[in-house]
Amino acid sequence: MLQANYSGVLLEAGTDEAGRGCLSGPVVAAAVILPADFEHPLLNDSKQLTEKQRMHLKPIIEEAALSFGVSFVSAEEVDAINVLQASIVGMQRSIAQLKPQPEFIIVDGNKFKPYKDVPHETIVKGDAKFLSIAAASVLAKTYRDAYMEDLHAQFPAYYWSKNKGYPTKQHRAAIREFGITPHHRKSFRLLPEQLKLDL
């Protein structure tokens, strides 16, 4: 069972991101403040859920949340500041959208930078421990997947509707054949043999 609250503070926000390990597309982050009595038998770390389950949960979370925010950090920004910083920037932008603002923040993972003067705690595998982080993980993943499906219409050769920008064999084969798009992260090792190629 996921826990409802870490800090004992009513306005506790959970935050998480999706897309850190992708070769293309944005890092998408979300922050969610859930009511104290929120529960749902399905809600878990988004990686443990099917796409259908995530899509089912998305409107339930948005409807029930006291507040939620979602932000996109572009591939260009990822290249400029690195993917870890992009994750933190994305989570902070999502928190900034929350109304009311949180009194405490719980963060999935082990890296974060203070947001204003709001106390926070990083929690490794927090998306499998706390409802608000799990809810944020579902929103980040569903918004990112929808974005990559839209991009797929413009760049069908890369199969982003299926791989969502992750480094699959099919995705890498398309990079090898067609080169990269403006949505690829140039700071990432896009092909295993990239170190040997004159790019």
From TrEMBL:
GO terms for molecular function: manganese ion binding; RNA binding; RNA-DNA hybrid ribonuclease activity. Pfam families: RNase_HII. Its cofactor is Mg(2+); Mn(2+). It is an enzyme of class 3 (hydrolase). Manganese or magnesium. Binds 1 divalent metal ion per monomer in the absence of substrate. May bind a second metal ion after substrate binding. CDD domains: RNase_HII_bacteria_HII_like. Its main location: cytoplasm. InterPro entries: RNase_HII, RNase_HII/HIII, RNase_HII/HIII_dom, RNaseH-like_sf, RNaseH_sf. A divalent metal cation binds at D16, E17, D108. The keyword Nuclease applies. Its EC number is 3.1.26.4. It is found in: Cytoplasm. It comes from the Bacteria. GO terms for cellular component: cytoplasm; ribonuclease H2 complex. NCBIfam families: PRK00015.1-3. HAMAP family: RNase_HII_B. Belongs to the RNase HII family. This is Ribonuclease HII. The gene is rnhB.
